[in-house]
Design brief:
single chain, alpha/beta, Isoleucyl-tRNA Synthetase, domain 2, Helix Hairpins, 4-stranded antiparallel beta sheet, 4-stranded mixed beta sheet, 28 helices, globular
Length: 869
């Protein structure tokens, strides 16, 4: 029989992990079984950008999906986890443009067609780096089905839904205020922007009534936009403006008359209650403009320069325009004051430029009707979010949904399939030829813009499976089972997938949406390369292996939405791998043949099998509920604290006895096989490596642990009475060991005797052997001793010979001094009104609990000092 005694004491992750991933892939382990009658379980992974490289967020999001898939496979499902990548329009175009400029090549001079060719070349060379990272993490995705959002079949799916929606009147060309990047020269979605707090200014400006009867004070952070003001709005309930609604104000600097209007948008409790209305340069002002049918002139163009409408300021850059406007307002007596003010500045994620709200003609999708069935699917429970608080977040957004800007002024992406005739009329079509047939006239050009990346990725759950063709994959794997994603893209991506799936497939795209936690630094900051707080996952894998990194993150992942990465946790995870490895070496070195199930079990055997059954229930329920941390903690506790620390230690005498070893051998092998199977979704590599060496029955067509059966037959071993009996014995053992430590008797050095009062229910020998006591006697000792209690059992340990009482007393006195000092410090803090008022409530409560703990320890120490004095 093969064993692993020739392997290093410590698990060599780098060798094992590289070898196993290749074997899994070569044997088709990640492919679903064709023609299987098993229940299908499908995940289409969130497609990472082709510009991406592995970061710590990926090392949680994608292993979570792998964990779920591996678990469902063990439970008997036919699993497909379908990978792919997103073309990432703005991100990719930015990266390639910068690269070309560094080579002295202008993208504009290169032209659209050749630029797109350059992007494809870059994609072939560099676009798959992140997928390599997923493989290193052990993600068991079906790479034979890998998809890309610009694959030929995927493009056809995108064009098909666009044409359908256009012909149904859901897609239209219109003007709306959008996020405009003056550098990239395109509109961008909210997720492609960053909100930063900026120390700006708040400008108070005097707007006089035309008739000279008074004035209205306006406060703004963007004074240059006043050049395109068309009204000032106040709340209809604001009594300060009773009788003034409808009067005209004179717009400073521009000498235009604008009305004072009543609208519910202004907050009468804030400042003067009056708001300048610039519909072309603010989304809220735009809504006011629509309601009141106001003109929408633009004072700024797409380059960020003042238009001709800005009169004497025309041609100025927006930043220079602000300076000139403020100076002129002051010179002409319209500027009341300037205050320092914290401004939430919106900047482009890609260019770093300040985003301008800008009225722009774009392609839009009407979402109101599309949203209704999506809202209903969450209300009736067809789709549910985990944690469930995100149901409300989703519904709040959907119930107030606006039309979606889907066009981008880029070259890289899905070109909008709108074709124009010479007379300006246009049609939507799959190709130029089809467009001319539909139009019945000569087509002269195709729309220059491309679709928002979120439009094409919204089709991901069904376009990846072959839609609009009715493929076998589509029939077998749609709807998918669960979506695992980030909380920041619920509105941008999850909502669109639900709407598109229900509209095109007439079915929900998935029934569960699992929002995974965000990985933060050890001190709770956001991980970021630019901030210097990022950690390279591949460097961590090089050092400790993927299993250790997976366990570090997955053991914290569940309903909590922020977890913290630390090197200490990584090292603890690596130590856990080594513990598993060394225990496996111990097991195999103690097997001389495959043991048969014994006819008789000792209580300690029954106890560990009962704990195994309990652990299976914990792990199963935790995996089913996506509470990965509960599964990890339950498995860790069973393996380290119960199997290794207790059962193996208790069983060593029997393992060394030829007449008794068969029973603990069989129990250990049974526990190990079940533990490895349950641990496999979290730590796929080490569990597969050890499982291969175990002398257990494996499936002949697929001897891998990922194709083993979940240990669902353990319930027969559950015995709570035995658990209580042995757990109490172990608690008594721990208490005796603690007494030994107080007397400074070295571990494993036999103590002559100990005493107990109460009923030990036949576990005296177990307690004595594990507490290293030569004789355990009933009753109280007559000699000087220290004591403790466990439930209704009193235990005593006599001082015995060789106990250095003076040394122990000195130690206790030092402990007393330290505890007294700690108590004084905590009292000073808790008695300080300043601390109580300024500290967080949880910090105050923590200190109060700590003070109680110190008080108890101090009392116990004083009692011990009396005993030894």
């Amino acid at each position: 029989m093969e064993n692993i005694t020739n392997l290093d004491t410590r698990y060599n992750a780098s060798e094992v992990e590289a070898a196993w991933y290749s074997r899994w892939w070569q044997h088709g382990c990640f492919r679903p079984e064709l023609g299987s009658n098993k229940p299908t379980f499908t995940i289409t992974i969130p497609p990472p950008n082709i510009t991406g490289s592995l970061h710590m967020g990926h090392t949680l999001c994608y292993p979570v999906q792998d964990l779920i898939g591996r678990y469902r496979r063990l439970r008997g499902d036919n699993v497909l986890i379908l990978p792919g990548q997103d073309h990432a329009g703005i991100a990719t175009q930015s990266v390639v443009s910068k690269q070309l400029k560094a080579e002295g090549i202008s993208p504009t001079q290169l032209g659209r067609e050749k630029f797109v060719e350059k992007v494809w070349q870059w994609r072939e060379k560099s676009g798959g780096m992140i997928l390599h990272g997923f493989r290193r993490m052990g993600c068991g995705f079906d790479w034979d089905r890998e998809r890309f959002t610009l694959d030929e079949r995927y493009v056809r799916a995108v064009l098909t839904i666009f044409i359908d929606w256009f012909e149904r009147g859901l897609i239209y060309r219109g003007k709306r205020v959008v996020n405009w990047d003056p550098v990239l020269q395109t509109s961008v979605s909210d997720i492609e922007t960053e909100r930063k707090q900026h120390k700006g200014k708040l400008y108070y400006i005097r707007y006089p009534f035309v008739d000279g009867s008074g004035e209205v004070t306006i406060a703004t952070t963007r004074p240059e936009t006043m050049l395109a003001d068309v009204a000032v709005a106040v709340h209809p309930s604001d009594k300060r403006y009773t009788g003034l609604i409808g009067k005209n104000l004179r717009l400073p600097l521009m000498n235009r008359e604008i009305p004072l209007i009543a609208d519910t948008y202004p907050d009468p409790e804030f400042g003067s209650g009056a708001v300048k209305i610039t519909p072309a340069h603010d989304p809220n002002d735009y809504e006011v403009g629509v309601r009141h049918k106001l003109e929408m002139p633009m004072m700024m163009d797409e380059q960020g320069k003042v238009t001709a409408f800005g009169g004497p300021y025309a041609g100025l850059d927006r930043h220079e325009a602000r300076k000139r406007v403020v100076a002129d307002l002051e010179e002409q007596g319209f500027l009341i004051k300037i205050e320092d003010h914290e401004i939430p500045l919106i900047v482009s994620e890609r260019s770093g430029e300040v985003i301008e709200p800008l009225l722009s003609e774009q392609w839009f999708v009407k979402q109101t009707e599309l949203a209704k069935p999506a809202i209903q699917s969450v209300l009736d429970g067809s789709i549910s979010f985990v944690p469930d608080r995100y149901n409300r977040i989703f519904l709040d957004w959907m119930e107030n949904i606006r039309d979606w800007n889907i066009s981008r002024k880029l070259w890289w992406g899905h070109r909008i399939p709108i074709y124009y005739a010479e007379d300006g009329t246009f049609v939507a079509a799959l190709s130029w030829d089809e467009a001319e047939k539909k139009a019945g006239k000569k087509i002269v050009r195709q729309d220059d813009e491309v679709l928002d990346t979120w439009f094409s990725s919204g089709l991901w759950p069904f376009a990846t499976l072959g839609w609009p063709e009715q493929t076998e994959d589509l029939k077998n794997h749609y709807p998918t089972s669960v979506l695992v994603t980030d909380r920041n893209i619920i509105n941008l991506w999850v909502a669109r997938m639900i709407m598109m799936g229900l509209d095109q497939m007439k079915e929900i795209p998935f029934s569960k949406v699992l929002i995974h936690p965000t990985v933060l630094t050890e001190d709770g900051r956001r991980m970021s390369k630019s901030l210097g707080t990022g950690v390279d996952p591949e460097g961590v894998i090089d050092r400790v292996g993927a299993d250790s990194l997976r366990y570090t993150l997955l053991s914290q992942a569940g309903s909590n939405q922020d977890i913290r990465y630390s090197e200490k946790r990584v090292d603890e995870a690596r130590n856990f791998c080594n513990k598993i490895w060394n225990a496996a070496r111990f097991l195999l070195m103690n097997l001389d043949e495959v043991p048969s199930e014994p006819g008789h079990l000792e209580d300690v055997d029954k106890w560990i099998l009962s704990r195994l059954a309990a652990t299976e229930a914990i792990a199963r329920n935790a995996y089913d509920g996506f509470e990965m941390q509960d599964a990890c903690q339950g498995l860790y506790r069973f393996f380290w604290s119960e199997l290794c620390d207790w059962y193996i230690e208790v069983s060593k005498p029997r393992l060394n006895d030829p007449q008794m070893k068969k029973t603990p051998q069989w129990v250990l092998l049974r526990c190990f096989e079940a533990f490895l199977t349950m641990m496999h979704p979290v730590m796929p590599f080490i569990t597969e490596e050890i499982y291969e060496k175990l002398p257990v029955q494996k499936k002949p067509d697929s001897p891998f642990i990922m194709h083993a059966d979940w240990p669902s037959d353990l319930g027969k071993w559950r015995n709570e009475a035995i658990e209580h009996k042995i757990d109490r014995a172990l608690a008594i053992t721990r208490a005796l060991r603690a007494l030994r430590a107080e007397l400074e008797i070295p571990a494993m050095t036999p103590a002559a005797e100990a005493y107990f009062v109460g009923d030990l229910a036949g576990v005296e020998d177990l307690v004595a052997s594990q507490a290293w006591i030569t004789t355990l006697k009933a009753g109280k000792p007559t000699a000087r001793s220290i004591s403790s209690s466990v439930e209704d059992i009193e235990i005593y340990l006599p001082f015995g010979e060789g106990i250095d009482v003076d040394k122990i007393l000195q130690r206790l006195q030092r402990e007393q001094e330290k505890l007294t000092k700690d108590a004084t410090t905590l009292d000073a803090r808790l008695n300080s009104p300043d601390f109580i008022s300024r500290a967080k409530p949880e910090v105050v409560e923590r200190d109060r609990e700590l003070r109680e703990s110190v008080a108890k320890q101090l009392e116990q120490t004083r009692e011990r000092i009396k005993l030894f004095s």
